[in-house]
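A reminder from the course coordinator: this example appears on the midterm review sheet, so study it carefully.

Given structure:
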C-alpha cells in the first residue's frame, strides 16, 4: 500500500515568510512603467502581424518604441539619481 502525502516544498512554497520584501515591492513599482511600455510595444507588434503592414501600424509601433525609450531613460535617471544621492554636485 502506498501512502499519499503532500510534498513539503509545495506546502511551504507560499508560506508567510516567503512574501516579497518592501524593497522588492518598491523595485517592482519602479520598474512597472518600463514593463507596461514594453508590453504595449509587444501588443502593437502582434497587432501588426495579423495583416499587411500599413501606416497606422507603423505609427503605433513607432509611438510604442518611443514610450519604451522614454521609460528606459526615466528608469536610468532614477537609478543615477539614487546612486548620487548624498549631495554630490
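Designed residues:
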Amino acid at each position: 500500500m502506498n501512502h499519499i502525502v503532500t510534498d513539503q516544498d509545495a506546502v511551504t512554497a507560499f508560506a508567510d515568510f516567503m512574501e516579497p520584501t518592501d524593497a522588492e515591492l518598491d523595485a517592482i513599482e519602479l520598474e512597472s512603467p518600463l514593463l507596461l511600455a514594453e508590453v504595449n510595444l509587444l501588443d502593437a507588434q502582434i497587432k501588426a502581424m495579423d495583416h499587411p503592414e500599413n501606416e497606422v501600424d507603423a505609427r503605433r509601433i513607432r509611438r510604442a518604441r518611443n514610450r519604451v525609450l522614454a521609460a528606459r531613460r526615466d528608469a536610468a535617471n532614477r537609478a543615477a539619481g539614487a546612486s548620487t544621492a548624498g549631495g554630490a554636485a
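Helices lie at 8-12, 22-49, 55-83. The mean pLDDT is 85.
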